[in-house]
């Protein structure tokens, strides 16, 4: 059965969003990217990320906050 036009548009949009996220992740510092990847893609809590990386919890929170701000700006999200 051929794809319905709405499904095709949704698939294209999803792929574009995924590529934009990858591009923005690549623009982060290594430490920000690693912390965000562990927390959001690895499913670890901030405390667990802190333990895995052997870095203070406050530092992890700062890295993730700053990284997410950079991601938001890169993706052109406005509040």
Structure in a nutshell:
With 79 residues, the protein is an all-alpha fold. The chain has 4 helices and no strands.
Care to describe what's here?
The chain has 79 residues and is mainly alpha-helical. It has a single domain, classed as Winged helix-like DNA-binding domain superfamily/Winged helix DNA-binding domain (Arc Repressor Mutant, subunit A, Orthogonal Bundle), CATH 1.10.10. The chain is 77% helix and 0% strand. The chain is elongated, with a radius of gyration of 16 Å.
The largest pleated sheet is described as:
none
CATH first level: Mainly Alpha
How much helix, percentage-wise, in residues? Answer: over 70%
Shape: elongated
Strand content: under 5%
Within the CATH hierarchy, at the fold level, what is the topology? Arc Repressor Mutant, subunit A
CATH architecture: Orthogonal Bundle
CATH superfamily: Winged helix-like DNA-binding domain superfamily/Winged helix DNA-binding domain
SSE layout:
Elements: H1 5-26, H2 30-41, H3 46-53, H4 57-75
Helix pairs in contact: 1-4, 2-4, 3-4
Task: Offer a few descriptive terms.
77% helix, Arc Repressor Mutant, subunit A, 4 helices, elongated, mainly alpha, 79 residues
